[in-house]
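Data deposition worksheet. Section B asks for the primary sequence of the deposited chain exactly as it was used as input, without tags or linkers unless they were present during the calculation. Section C holds the resulting structure in C-alpha cell form. Section D is free text for depositor observations; keep each observation to a single sentence. Incomplete worksheets are returned to the depositor.
Section A, Depositor: J.P.
Section B:
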Amino acid sequence: MREACTRHGEFKRRADGTLEFDDYIELRRIIVRQTSRTWKPIRTKLEKMKSDAYMNKDNSAYIKAYHEMNKQANSAQIAMTMKTCEHIELDPPRWQGTDSRYTGDERMR
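Section C:
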C-alpha cells in the first residue's frame, strides 16, 4: 500500500479537504487491491467452511460462515481504509466526505 501511494505521488485535495475525483479513484483502487490481498487467507478458510456446511446440508453452519465472511470482509476493508488514510494524512471525516461526494453523485458512478 505504501509503495502504491508513493508511486502515485501527491493526492490532490479540493478546498474542503476532500480528494479530487481521479485521486479518489486511485486511492479506492489501492485500498481494494490491498484489502483483497490481506484477507485472502481468511476468505479461503471461510469459503471452505461454507462449502463443507453446504455439502453436509448444515444450514446453520452455512449461514454462520456466510455472516462471518461478510463481517471479516468489512473489517478488512475498514482497517485498510484507515491505514491508507493515515499514510497519506487524510482525516477519516475527509475520506467519508470524499466517498459520499462521488458515490452519491449519479454522474460519478
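Section D:
Residues 20-97 form one domain.
Residues 53 and 62 are 5 Å apart (CA to CA).
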